[in-house]
Design goal:
The complex is a heterodimer.
Chain A lengths: L19 H5 L17 E2 L19 H14 L4 E3 L4 H18 L4 E6 L2 E6 L4 E6 L10 H6 L5 E8 L2 E8 L8 H4 L4 H4 L11 H10 L7 E10 L10 H4 L11 H4 E12 L6 E11 H4 L3 H13 L2 H6 L6 H9 L17
Antiparallel strand pairs in A: 1-8, 2-7, 3-4, 4-5, 6-7, 6-10, 8-9, 9-10
Helix pairs in contact in A: 11-13
Chain B lengths: L7 E10 L4 E8 L12 E9 L2 E8 L10 E6 L7 H8 L5 E4 L3 E2 L9 E7 L4 H13 L3 E7 L8 H8 L3 E5 L8 H6 L5 E6 L2 H13 L7 E4 L10 E5 L4 E5 L5 H7 L18 E11 L7 H6 L2 E2 L5 E9 L2
Parallel strand pairs in B: 8-9, 8-11, 9-10, 11-12, 13-17
Antiparallel strand pairs in B: 1-2, 1-6, 2-5, 3-4, 3-6, 3-7, 13-14, 15-16, 15-17
Classes of the chains: A alpha+beta, B alpha/beta.
Bound molecules: protoporphyrin IX containing FE (HEM) and FE2/S2 (inorganic) cluster.
Chain lengths: 348, 321
C-alpha cells in the first residue's frame, strides 16, 4: 500500500486514525450552535481544493483500509449487497458515474479507457485491472453495483422512481448507522424513514421527497447527517448490535476523548441517466472527540449542540445514555465565546 | 431557473421534413462534449429566440438514448398555437446555434413490467421511439399500437414496422381503423404495464377504459404536454420581487416573469411536473387552471397557480414570486 493510504483497522484493535490533514478537512456538519432536522440540501458542486467536496466522490487516506473492511463484512453477510432484478440498469449507471468521476478527478490512481462498449478500468490503489463490456453482466466478476461499490468508500442505495415515490431497491450497505438494507429493501421513501422522530411532523420528508422526484440529470445535491459511534467501527448494523451496542456502557471520562467518535455522513443524490433512478451515496467520516477538540470552534459548537439537542433525537441517535458524559468532556473546551456562522474552522 | 443543471449549447445538425406537418430536428453539442445518455420517455426544453420573445417548449427525445453524438426531436406544426412550433418549422435551419436543457423524464418505463403495452396517437409516438430502442437493448417484451390520421401523416410508421415487425400495429383513421382497445386490455399477461401518449381525448379514453377493466392505477402511465394556451392579456403582482407585470395574449405567465428578469422554477413548462407551483396571495377574479398538477380542491380554492400554463382574468392577482 502506498504512502498515501493508511494501514489501519475498523475493528479488533481499532487502529484507525486521522492524520492532521484529515482532521483539517473533516466535514464538520454544524453551521450553527444548535441542531434540528430540516430539508438541508444544496447543489453538489465542487468545493474548495482539498475539501471533501472538491470531487464528486472523495477518495481519502482511509480508502484502501475501508475497502478491506467492506470485503470482510460481505464475506460474513452477503445480503449487505442486494439488487432487485429491475435495478441492474441503475447499477450500470452508477458504475459509469463513479468510473468517469474517479478517472477524471484522480487520474494518477484511476483510469478508464473506452472503445464503444469495450471498457478498460484500472484502479491502482486496489491493484485492480478489468476489461469488460459495458451493460454485459457476464463480463464482470459480479453485478455492476457490487463491482464498483467494492471499490468506492461509503454506502450506496439505488432508488427506483414510480407512482410519485421512491423505492429503495438496491444497495451496498456495510458502514451504516444502525439500519438494514435487508429490512428496508422494497420500501417507499416514507416507509423507510418511519423510525425517524419529529421530522415527519415538521414536513421534512414530504418536502424532501417532492424535491427529489424532480432531481435533474447533471444537477446532483448533497446533505449532511450525523450520529455518535463508540470506537471507529464502520459497520454499526442492527445485525451486529450485540457486538457494538454494549460498548456504549464502557465509556469513562478517561477514555471518552479517544473512543467516542462523531460520525458524519456526507450524502449525495444523483439522477441516473438510463434508468431514471436516483443514486444515494452515504459517505461516513469518523473523528474522535480528542481530535475534534483540536479545532476550537468545533469544540465549542459540538458542546452546545450535544447539550441542547432535543431528547427524541438523542434517543434516536443512540447517545442519550452518554450525553451527560459527552457534555462534561466537551465543556472543558467551551469557553463560552461566540462562534462564527458556517462550518469552516475560524482562523484562531 | 432550470433547477440547477446547466443548459446545453447546441447547433442544429439536420432538419428533415417528414410530411407537411412534421419536421425532425437533430442537435449536436457545440462544446465538443458528449450528450448525456437518457432514459426512454425523457424530454428536453428547447429555447428559441423568436424575434426577441424567448420561447421554451418541451419536446420528447426520440433518438437512441445511448447515442451521445446528438439529440433528435420531432415537432408537429400547430398553426393555431402561440408560435413555438411555427418558429421551429419556419425559422430553424441547419447550422443555427440554440440551447436545450438536460433531459428530464416524467414518463419513465417501469422496468419491473413483464410486458410494456405502448399506445400512441399522432405525434405522441415520439417518446415511444426512444423507449422501444431502450426496451430492445434491454431485451424486454413490448407491443406498440399507433394510431394516426393517414398514411401520409404516419411519420415513422413504416420505419417502426420494418424495425420491430409484428410488435408494431398501425391504425389509420382515414381507413376507419380503430385500436381494438377492449381486446387489448383483456388479453395481456400478468405484470403488463400500459403507456399512452397522444391527444387529450385519446389519453382519457385509454386510461378510463383500462381502469374500468380493472387495471391497477400503478400500471398505467401517460404523458400529455399542454401547450400554454393563448388568451387575453392580464396583470399580475409579484409579491417577492415587488414587480407588476403584464402577461401578453400569446405569452405564458412563466414567460412574462422570465422576461421581467424574475428567476422562477420550472421543468416541463407544460403543466405536468409541478415544479412551477406558486402560492397565490390574493385573487380578485378567476384563475384559468390549465394544468394537470393541482388537485380539483386546490384549483377551486385559488390558493395555488401553475404559471407555465395557467392564466387569469379579473381585477387583481398577487402571487408569491
Ligand atoms: C433517497 C435517498 C434516501 C435514502 C435511501 C434514505 C435512507 C435513510 C435511512 C435508511 C434512514 C435510517 C432510518 C432508520 O432509522 O431506520 C434515514 C434517516 C434519515 N433521513 Fe434519509 N434517506 C434518503 C434521503 C433523505 C433526504 C433527502 C432527507 C432530507 C431531509 C433525509 C432525511 C433523513 C433524516 C433527518 C434521518 C434521521 C437521521 C438521524 O437522525 O440519524 N433522508 N434515511
Ligand atoms: S413547469 Fe412543470 S408544471 Fe409548470
Amino acid at each position: 500500500m502506498g504512502l498515501e493510504f493508511n494501514e489501519e483497522t475498523f475493528r479488533g484493535d481499532f487502529s484507525f486514525k486521522n492524520s492532521p490533514k484529515a482532521i483539517k478537512r473533516f466535514p464538520f456538519p454544524f453551521p450553527e450552535d444548535s441542531y434540528m432536522y430540516s430539508v438541508n440540501m444544496e447543489p453538489h458542486v465542487p468545493g474548495p481544493k482539498g475539501s471533501v467536496f472538491e470531487h464528486t466522490f472523495d477518495v481519502d487516506e482511509h480508502y484502501v483500509s475501508e475497502m478491506r473492511d467492506r470485503a470482510m463484512v460481505l464475506a460474513d453477510d452477503p445480503l449487505r449487497c442486494q439488487s432487485l432484478p429491475h435495478m441492474t440498469l441503475a447499477g450500470w449507471d452508477l458504475l459509469e458515474l463513479i468510473m468517469e468521476s474517479k478517472a477524471r478527478d484522480y487520474p494518477h490512481w484511476f483510469e478508464l479507457h473506452k472503445n464503444g462498449n469495450k471498457w478498460h478500468w484500472i484502479n491502482r490503489p486496489l491493484e485492480i485491472e478489468q476489461k469488460f463490456t459495458f451493460l454485459d453482466e457476464t463480463t464482470l466478476p459480479c453485478g455492476p453495483l457490487e463491482y464498483i461499490t467494492r471499490q468506492t468508500q461509503g454506502d450506496f442505495t439505488l432508488q427506483d422512481q414510480r407512482d410519485n415515490n421512491l423505492f429503495i431497491e438496491a444497495g451496498m450497505v456495510t458502514t451504516q448507522a444502525d439500519w438494514s438494507l435487508d429490512f428496508d429493501i422494497g420500501m417507499s421513501f416514507q416507509e423507510w424513514h418511519a423510525p425517524v422522530p419529529m421530522a415527519h411532523e415538521l414536513g421534512v420528508f414530504d418536502r424532501a421527497l417532492k424535491f427529489l422526484l424532480k432531481l435533474q440529470l447533471g444537477a446532483p445535491v448533497r446533505r449532511f447527517n450525523w450520529t455518535m459511534t463508540v470506537d471507529p467501527l464502520l459497520d454499526t448494523s442492527p445485525e451486529n448490535y450485540p457486538k457494538w451496542g454494549p460498548t456504549k456502557t464502557t465509556l469513562t471520562m478517561d477514555n471518552i476523548g479517544r473512543r467516542q467518535h462523531l460520525r458524519v455522513e456526507l450524502q449525495t443524490l444523483h439522477r441516473l441517466p438510463r434508468s431514471n433512478a436516483i443514486a444515494f451515496p452515504i459517505r461516513a467520516y469518523l473523528i474522535s472527540f480528542q481530535d475534534l477538540v483540536t479545532v476550537p470552534k468545533w469544540a465549542r459548537r459540538l458542546h452546545r449542540v450535544i447539550r441542547d439537542v432535543p431528547e427524541p433525537l438523542a434517543t434516536y441517535k443512540g447517545f442519550l445514555r452518554n450525553r451527560p458524559l459527552m457534555v462534561e468532556y466537551l465543556s472543558q473546551f467551551d469557553d463560552g465565546k461566540p462562534t462564527s456562522p458556517g462550518w469552516w474552522p475560524e482562523p484562531e | 431557473m432550470s433547477v440547477g443543471a446547466p443548459k446545453i449549447p447546441v447547433v442544429v445538425a439536420e432538419v428533415v421534413e417528414l410530411n407537411p406537418l412534421i419536421k425532425r430536428f437533430r442537435f449536436v453539442r457545440t462544446d465538443g462534449k458528449p450528450m448525456p445518455t437518457f432514459s426512454g420517455g425523457a424530454h428536453i426544453v428547447v429555447e428559441m429566440d423568436d424575434n426577441g420573445t424567448r420561447r421554451m417548449n418541451p419536446y420528447s427525445l426520440m433518438s437512441d438514448p445511448t447515442d451521445t453524438s446528438g439529440f433528435e426531436i420531432s415537432v408537429r406544426r400547430d398553426d393555431a398555437g402561440r408560435g413555438g412550433s411555427l418558429y421551429m418549422h419556419n425559422h430553424v435551419r441547419p447550422g443555427m446555434a440554440m440551447q436545450v436543457s438536460h433531459p428530464v423524464n416524467l414518463f419513465g418505463l417501469d422496468l419491473r413490467a413483464k410486458k410494456h403495452l405502448l399506445i400512441a396517437g399522432g405525434i405522441g409516438i415520439t417518446p415511444f421511439i426512444a423507449q422501444m430502442t431502450q426496451l430492445e437493448h434491454l431485451g424486454h417484451r413490448f407491443e406498440l399500437h399507433y394510431s394516426v390520421r393517414s398514411p401520409e401523416l404516419g411519420a415513422y410508421a413504416d420505419d417502426l414496422k420494418s424495425r420491430y415487425g409484428d410488435r408494431v400495429h398501425i391504425y389509420y383513421d382515414n381507413q376507419k381503423h380503430m385500436i381494438p382497445l377492449a381486446e387489448l386490455l383483456e388479453g395481456q399477461p400478468l405484470g403488463t404495464h400500459l403507456y399512452v401518449c397522444g391527444p387529450k381525448g385519446m389519453i382519457a379514453w385509454v386510461l378510463g377504459s383500462a381502469e374500468a377493466a380493472g387495471w391497477h392505477p400503478s400500471t398505467l402511465h401517460s404523458e400529455e404536454f399542454l401547450a400554454p394556451p393563448v388568451g387575453h392579456a392580464f396583470e399580475v403582482e409579484l409579491a417577492a420581487s415587488r414587480k407588476t407585470i403584464t402577461v401578453g395574449p400569446a405569452q405564458s405567465l412563466l414567460e412574462a416573469m422570465e422576461a421581467a428578469g424574475v428567476d422562477a422554477p420550472y421543468l416541463c413548462r407544460g403543466g405536468a411536473c409541478g415544479q412551477c407551483e406558486t402560492d397565490v396571495h390574493r385573487c380578485d377574479g378567476s384563475i384559468e387552471h390549465n394544468d394537470h398538477w393541482l388537485t380539483p380542491e386546490q384549483k377551486a380554492s385559488n390558493t395555488k397557480i401553475m404559471p407555465c400554463v395557467s392564466r387569469f382574468h379579473g381585477a387583481t392577482l398577487v402571487i408569491d414570486r
